[in-house]
Amino acid sequence: MRYQISGKQIDVGEALQTHVRDDLDLVMAKYAQRPTEAIVVFSKNAHQFACEATVHLSTGLTVQAKAHDTEIYGAFDSCNEKMEKQLRRYKRRLKDHHRTRSEPVESFGAASYILASDQDGEESDTDTLQPIIVAEMETKIPSLSVGEAVMQMELAGAPVLVFRHEGKDGLNVVYRREDGNIGWIDPRT
């Protein structure tokens, strides 16, 4: 597995990097057979350290977790525990997913934009229906079954996931509803 361990405006020493590699190796060996890449980013906000970890699995699924603590090692340990809990919860489905899928998850590129919000809710003199684009990025839209999409959304901790339903042409959306259930938007084509 390839590791990318970094810090935002803080120095991440060799001892912490070794700790991260060893602990992630233990969790991944137990729950996910073929992880390809781990990205761990540490930052500091006032008196607390934050740890954000993302592990990409060879099937195309992604596991993400975030945690805060007053100690940098504690932040990583909490983050690692959250990731382990997610993987433990989905272990059977991940293993079943490996058996039925011989190829990695296919994905295609799409543009992702960040739009500016109205300042203080006031409308400007040049108000049009065209939003102001603040940033533009490239993103991937995976081709998944509905069950895999729900699992990916929950592993990533995201409120919504856009995906292409396998065997169909249109884009689908799964999202977490206010009542705690999962919603699925499947356009008729």
Automatic annotation (TrEMBL):
<comment type="similarity">
    <text>Belongs to the HPF/YfiA ribosome-associated protein family. Long HPF subfamily.</text>
</comment>
<comment type="subunit">
    <text>Associates exclusively with 100S ribosomes, which are dimers of 70S ribosomes.</text>
</comment>
<dbReference type="Pfam" id="PF02482">
    <property type="entry name" value="Ribosomal_S30AE"/>
</dbReference>
<dbReference type="InterPro" id="IPR050574">
    <property type="entry name" value="HPF/YfiA_ribosome-assoc"/>
</dbReference>
<dbReference type="InterPro" id="IPR034694">
    <property type="entry name" value="HPF_long/plastid"/>
</dbReference>
<keyword id="KW-0810">Translation regulation</keyword>
<comment type="function">
    <text>Required for dimerization of active 70S ribosomes into 100S ribosomes in stationary phase; 100S ribosomes are translationally inactive and sometimes present during exponential growth.</text>
</comment>
<dbReference type="InterPro" id="IPR003489">
    <property type="entry name" value="RHF/RaiA"/>
</dbReference>
<dbReference type="GO" id="GO:0043024">
    <property type="term" value="F:ribosomal small subunit binding"/>
</dbReference>
<dbReference type="InterPro" id="IPR036567">
    <property type="entry name" value="RHF-like"/>
</dbReference>
<protein>
    <recommendedName>
        <fullName>Ribosome hibernation promoting factor</fullName>
    </recommendedName>
</protein>
<comment type="subunit">
    <text>Interacts with 100S ribosomes.</text>
</comment>
<dbReference type="GO" id="GO:0022627">
    <property type="term" value="C:cytosolic small ribosomal subunit"/>
</dbReference>
<dbReference type="InterPro" id="IPR038416">
    <property type="entry name" value="Ribosom_S30AE_C_sf"/>
</dbReference>
<feature type="domain" description="Sigma 54 modulation/S30EA ribosomal protein C-terminal">
    <location>
        <begin position="130"/>
        <end position="183"/>
    </location>
</feature>
<dbReference type="InterPro" id="IPR032528">
    <property type="entry name" value="Ribosom_S30AE_C"/>
</dbReference>
<keyword id="KW-0963">Cytoplasm</keyword>
<dbReference type="GO" id="GO:0045900">
    <property type="term" value="P:negative regulation of translational elongation"/>
</dbReference>
<dbReference type="Pfam" id="PF16321">
    <property type="entry name" value="Ribosom_S30AE_C"/>
</dbReference>
